[in-house]
Prior knowledge:
Number of helices: 15
Strand content: 5-15%
CATH superfamily of the largest domain: Aldolase class I
Mean pLDDT: 96
Largest sheet: 8 strands, parallel, barrel
CATH topology of the largest domain: TIM Barrel
Distance between the termini: 59 Å
Order of helices and strands: EEHHEHEHEHHEHEHEHEHEHEHEHHH
Helix content: 40-55%
Number of strands: 12
Strand order of the largest sheet: 2-3-4-5-6-7-8-9
Shape: elongated
Low-confidence stretches: none
CATH architecture of the largest domain: Alpha-Beta Barrel
Structural class: alpha/beta
Bound molecules: 3-methyl-2-oxobutanoic acid, zinc ion
CATH class of the largest domain: Alpha Beta
Amino acid sequence: xxxxxxxxxxxxxxxxxxxxxxxxxxxxxxxxxxxxxxxxxxxxxxxxxxxxxxxxxxxxxxxxxxxxxxxxxxxxxxxxxxxxxxxxxxxxxxxxxxxxxxxxxxxxxxxxxxxxxxxxxxxxxxxxxxxxxxxxxxxxxxxxxxxxxxxxxxxxxxxxxxxxxxxxxxxxxxxxxxxxxxxxxxxxxxxxxxxxxxxxxxxxxxxxxxxxxxxxxxxxxxxxxxxxxxxxxxxxxxxxxxxxxxxxxxxxxxxxxxxxxxxxxxxxxxxxxxxxxxxxxxxxxxxxxxxxxxxxxxxxxxxxxxxxxxxxxxxxxxxxxxxxxxxxxxxxxxxxxxxxxxxxxxxxxxxxxxxxxxxxxxxxxxxxxxxxxxxxxxxxxxxxxxxxxx
Length: 390
Ligand code: KIV
Ligand code: ZN
């Protein structure tokens, strides 16, 4: 089987920017959009143009700037939203309108006070109207994760007939289990006439920590687009993290799926988004967290010093991280201490190492982490205790 492409739809500037405190100005959005374009993102969701004049301006400026990626604007299934989005996207090389409506019983009843038939009618009218402005129209079935599969298939069938080019199946509330979400995608593939002519998209939220697993289950069952954000930022617990899906597909060639993203940009882009949004990245965040390539326990450090692959499945250089880190703590062993000592200029014999190690443990017990400067101090303390050091 030849490797199939999974399109990356980045919504950092829309779903990501909805996070309280993460608001960006147009200049910041342009900077991030330029990077997303450079790193190989297929679609940049630039904003929700009708939501504010500032968002309209950002989508419009991003449309002028971006060279390769498609630029997408979100709308509700409302004519005015679609007209405003079309206007904001008019300079884009590849414009896409993303329109849709809720399809779960809860959304139909409480948000729209409507019937299932009315929802289909409103969705299809919006898709057909959006097609008057652009050739590329993505339909989202909001809360598809909790929508009845049979009804969802009916909705999708009508949206394909109305001219949708992409069907987005959001797990808006992050409710689904991976197996369940994968089955949903397969059900649609098997039960929507004409679905082979459109792209199925996964848009997963992280309320149960399953956003990435669900997106991967989706593409394993036939979806060919993943909607994600840098660092997994997004509403509530966030969205699928771009860096995670890109590396999962690269590290698992047996899936026969890949993206066009150049991974060497991942770390720097994570840092850029974190800085611009003022949103810290948790240290244990996969791929881009400060500890993603840091080793602190003695057993792991010994292995990594002998051969990096003993405890690392990714070469940090591939994602733009300079090197793995050996972090000295009271849990470190002699191998790590000798390694760090050598780095700061002390070559120790085995006997010296044994003696300095005892001094190191006493010192490290009072500290969270032993830094390079601390090593000089440990050496000094050792010397004072007449431990011979070359
Ligand atoms: O989570 C969601 O359902 C969304 C849609 C607007 C695509 O963000
Ligand atoms: Zn969302």
